[in-house]
Design brief:
The complex is a heterodimer.
Chain A lengths: L6 H24 L7 H19 L1 H7 L4 H21 L9 E6 L3 E6 H29 L1
Antiparallel strand pairs in A: 1-2
Helix pairs in contact in A: 1-2, 2-3, 2-5, 4-5
Chain B lengths: L12 H19 L4 H21 L1 H5 L4 E8 L4 E7 L1 H24 L5 H21 L3 H19 L6 H32 L4 H6 L5 H17 L8 H4 L5 H10 L3 H14 L5 H20 L5 H22 L2 H32 L10 H4 L1 H15 L5 H16 L1 H26 L20 H19 L5 H8 L15 H18 L1 H19 L3 H23 L4 H23 L12 H18 L3 H21 L3 H22 L12 H27 L6 H8 L9 H9 L1 H33 L2
Antiparallel strand pairs in B: 1-2
Helix pairs in contact in B: 1-2, 1-5, 2-4, 2-5, 4-5, 4-11, 4-15, 4-20, 4-21, 5-6, 6-7, 7-9, 9-12, 11-15, 12-14, 13-14, 13-19, 14-15, 14-19, 15-17, 15-18, 15-20, 15-21, 17-19, 17-20, 18-19, 18-20, 18-22, 19-22, 25-29, 26-27, 27-28, 31-32
The chains are: A mainly alpha, B mainly alpha.
């Protein structure tokens, strides 16, 4: 199958792609209180990557996210597991939620929890999974 | 179990004793490739620092104190990281860290500071961390985790030269043998914890349970200890493990890891040796191993193998001593354990140096090294004489203590150990003469060694230090005595003396020395006898552990092949059919038998009929289409309809997830469909079609029934009420679904994303494998 880029799709992608990525991060961040979360966020960014793959082809996909699949997944697993050890480090049971306030220059007071780190890990794993499917199964379609 | 109040991380020195090694190992493995020197310095420095900290605790421990730390892990299962530094842990920990630091330095020179250095040193440091974990663990499960970590790091080190098939096979053999033992031990530990009602080792030993279950548990734990410490009939993996680079052999397979089993015995034996079966079994196995190892050491030509069988023999003696469990025996055992580390590690290191200088370890070929490598000779003599138990070295002092302890028990035990000591003297002489002596010129062999240079400093110094320590402890036993007394807990359990006086034990020592030298002098006759004995008796009649291992492995592979051939037919319809039939038969029959017909309630929001109608229409249409792609799109429509239902019932999270999954699902389906014919194929035979129809209908009925039954049959108060109430207060979030996923059920989620990651790896493997095999088919 020869790849023929479509102008309409490419223009559409320019508009949609970044919006989707931002939306996915929003879903990840808002997930603890509103609909969303790491799994959904990961799926949304996965959908964005799928669009890149479908419109611009596998080469552009790799240029968009130059990290190897397994690095993404590994970082995700690491983050999720690390979130569990935060409570541990304070002498409390594994995976107990820990909240800590943070004063960021622009955002003001931000409440961060170990749960957010965990969810970010889930986000990365799901994204890596979608990426892996695209890279592995998608590559061969082109060949 | 309520422990003492939690401490902040920084205030946990014993935890950091292990943790720092792990951090260093990770660092060295990640960043040390280009900087072998820094890697060695950092690793050796960390181990030396740990040694220093342990040495600073000697005062506390010998005056009767213990350092105890608690870290909660899974409190509901009694799994925690309870660390306890007592006398036994201290002495073992000092062996682990001290030998570790020296051998790390040695490995740098051994690998000529080349690229493999950092990887090796990283594994070694990771191993040191696991070994320290075993030593200081007070929790049975924590102990098991560290126990298995040493198995894994040992696997990596034995198979370090992974381009060699023999090294990989030896590594696998060690992994399987000790791994099976470890699993048995886990079973035993769980039973013990159940019996004692605590998973704390100290509490268990303070109030040991009894009864049949405890007996079974102890037998299982013994299986773990025996495999780890290479006791008969599991001893064969240890000589095999000599495929490891020599520094690893010196460290893991003589000084530390193989001691884990006897260490565990030393821990638990004082509490359990009064159980009738204990002493006969443990001492029996230990003595058998001791004699067998020493006997077989006399037959070896490879210096490493010779030393390895020597280690097997010494481990047997340690097992027997600890198995007796009396304070005097344990005292002597710890002394032997220390002495063994101080003489066996240097011997291995010297062999490594010889191997590096001459590329040969065969005692028939090494010639004239005494003049070429005088430094190595001096170290080997000091260590070897200690191994043979010659005055005034620490090996002698420890052996005297052992003889005393045995004599108090039974003269027969002493006779056996004395016999093995004579063999030890003989194989020590064989090793020393073999490495350094002059060989008669023979026609068929090319002697090596004439061109060997001296020994590099870093190959000599790490061996010289422990050997010198063996001499110092021998001359001044008072240096080591307080430490040993702290391990037994009672002062005066035994006494280390350089000159014991003209007592029976001394006479036995002298006799074994003479007998050993005689055996060495008549080595040709001994060798002939051994060879004949092996050919006539053992090879024919005795099933060796190794033979059983080989046959078991081959049998396992064969049956796995057969099972795979039956189960994995390679036909998708068959797989699907089996899965669906299982669903119908197992939960399906339970559903039919177990639940009354539920009342169906058709009320609800009007929109559900709309979305339900879409789902039903799409599902029906799937049956009619012929193109696979069209079917997939319609399947997507079913999914979107489901998402609509979720919205109607107020579950936005589920709806969102469902929508995204359906979208990505269609894409992934499309990717796979490129590989399949575009149209569905009609089933060729009529029976097949009928079968498919039947299975499909049954599954449909089952799912419908199950959905209805689950909706109405939730008798116990649903856990969801708890989640709803506590999501905000305990989980700190208003989105209940997300709080469940990331907090209440975080461990489940971690498991699930691990599965996701594994699936990703599987896909990558399948696709790459398929591509590779296709290329292979196209190439020729």
């Amino acid at each position: 199958m020869k790849h023929r880029p479509s102008l309409i799709a490419q223009t559409g992608l320019r508009i949609v792609f970044h919006t989707l990525v931002v939306l996915s991060v929003y879903l990840l961040a808002a997930g603890h209180n509103a609909p969303g979360g790491g799994f959904i966020g990961g799926l949304v960014v996965g959908a964005a990557l799928t669009l890149v793959w479908a419109v611009d082809g596998p080469q552009r996909l790799r240029a968009t996210l130059p990290l190897p699949t397994f690095t993404v997944i590994g970082l995700g697993l690491l983050a999720a597991a690390a979130a569990g050890t935060i409570a541990w480090a304070q002498g409390r049971p594994f995976f107990e939620a820990v909240a800590f306030g943070l004063d960021l220059p622009l955002f003001g007071k931000v409440k961060l929890t170990s749960v957010f780190l965990f969810d970010a890990g889930v986000y990365l794993v799901v994204m890596g999974m979608v990426l892996g499917i695209l890279v592995n199964l998608g590559e061969e379609v082109e060949a | 179990m309520p422990g003492p109040p939690p401490l902040p991380f920084a205030a946990l020195p014993v935890f950091w004793l292990i943790g720092s090694q792990l951090v260093v190992a990770a660092l060295v493995l990640a960043a040390g490739r280009r900087r072998p020197r820094s890697a060695v310095i950092v690793s050796a420095g960390a181990l030396a620092a740990a040694f220093g900290w342990l040495a600073a605790q000697v005062g506390t421990i010998t005056s009767g104190g213990v350092v105890v730390e608690h870290l909660t892990w899974v409190p509901h299962l009694g799994v925690s990281l309870d660390l306890r530094l007592d006398g036994l842990a201290l002495i073992m920990g000092m062996v682990v860290t001290g030998a570790g630091a020296l051998i790390t330095l040695y490995s740098g020179a051994y690998f000529k500071w080349g690229p493999p250095t950092a990887r090796f040193v990283g594994y070694l440091t990771a191993f040191a961390a696991s070994m320290l974990g075993i030593v200081v663990s007070d929790n049975l499960y924590g102990l098991f985790v560290f126990w298995e970590l040493t198995t894994i790091t040992s696997y990596l080190l034995i198979g370090f030269e992974d381009e060699k098939g023999s090294a990989r096979a030896a590594a696998l053999q060690a992994l399987l043998v000790t791994g099976v033992g470890g699993l048995a031990m886990l079973g035993g530990l769980v039973l013990l914890a159940q019996q004692a009602g605590t998973s704390s080792l100290a509490a268990l030993l303070a109030d040991p349970p009894g009864g049949t279950v405890t007996t079974v548990a102890l037998l299982l734990v013994l299986a773990g200890a025996f495999t780890k410490s290479a006791q008969v009939p599991f001893h064969f993996w240890l000589p095999g493990a000599m495929a490891a680079p020599t520094p690893a052999s010196a460290y893991l397979h003589s000084a530390t890891m193989v001691k884990a089993g006897v260490f565990l015995l030393a821990r638990i034996s004082p509490a359990f040796h009064t159980i009738p079966f204990w002493t006969p079994l443990v001492v029996g196995i230990g003595l058998t191993t001791m004699i067998l190892g020493a006997w077989r050491a006399l037959r070896q030509h490879d210096l490493k193998l010779l030393l390895a069988y020597g280690t097997v023999s010494q481990l047997g003696l340690l097992t027997a001593l600890f198995g007796m469990g009396t304070p005097a025996a344990v005292y002597a055992g710890v002394a032997m354990l220390l002495a063994h580390a101080l003489f066996k590690a240097p011997l291995f290191l010297v062999v490594g140096a010889i191997d590096k200088q001459t590329h040969c370890r065969d005692i028939r070929l090494l010639d004239g090294l005494a003049r070429r490598m005088p430094g190595a000779l001096a170290v080997a003599l000091a260590a070897g004489l200690s191994m043979a138990g010659v005055l005034p070295l620490f090996g002698f002092v420890a052996k005297e203590a052992a003889f005393e302890a045995l004599l108090a028990r039974s003269p027969w035990l002493l006779a056996l150990v004395a016999a093995s000591s004579a063999l030890t003297v003989a194989y020590t002489a064989r090793a020393l003469w073999g490495a350094f002596g002059r060989k008669p010129v023979s026609a068929q062999a090319d002697l090596v060694g004439a061109k060997a240079g001296g020994t590099p400093l870093f190959l000599l110094l790490p061996a010289a230090l422990p050997a010198a320590l063996g001499l110092a402890f021998g001359l001044l036993p008072g240096l080591a005595a307080p430490l040993l007394e702290a391990t037994v807990g009672t002062a005066g359990a035994g006494a280390l003396k350089l000159w014991p006086g003209l007592k029976p034990a001394l006479g036995v020592s002298a006799a074994t020395l003479l007998a050993g030298l005689l055996l060495f002098a008549r080595r040709d006759a001994v060798e002939r006898l051994q060879r004949a004995g092996h050919r006539r008796l053992l090879a024919k009649w005795a099933p060796t552990g190794e033979g059983i291992y080989r046959r078991a492995l081959a049998g396992l592979n064969r049956s796995a092949d057969r099972v795979t051939a039956v189960v994995q037919s390679g036909s998708l319809p068959v797989y699907l059919g089996i899965i669906l039939l299982t669903v119908i038969l197992l939960p399906g029959s339970a559903l039919v038998l177990g639940t009354a017909l539920p009342r169906v309630d058709f009320g609800g929001h009007w929109a559900q009929f709309l979305t339900g109608g879409v789902v039903a229409a799409a599902a029906l249409a799937i049956l009619r289409v012929r193109r696979r792609m069209a079917a997939v799109v319609l399947l997507g429509a079913v999914g979107y309809g489901m998402a609509g239902l979720f919205i109607v019932y107020g579950a936005p999270d589920l709806a969102l997830t469902q929508l995204l999954i359906e979208t990505l699902g269609i894409v992934i389906f499309a990717l796979v469909l490129f590989r399949l014919p575009p149209y569905f194929r009609e089933a060729r035979w009529r029976l097949g079609r009928a079968l498919r129809l039947g299975v499909s209908a049954a599954v449909g009925l089952f799912v419908t029934g199950a959905a209805l039954a689950v909706g109405t049959a939730s008798r116990p108060p649903p856990v969801s009420a708890y989640f709803n109430e506590n999501a905000l207060s305990a989980g700190g979030g208003r989105n209940v679904v997300n709080v469940i996923l990331t907090d209440f059920r975080a461990l489940d989620t971690l498991g699930e994303i691990t599965v996701v990651a594994t699936a990703a790896i599987g896909i990558a493997g399948l696709v790459t494998g398929a591509v590779r095999s296709r290329r292979k088919r196209q190439e020729p």
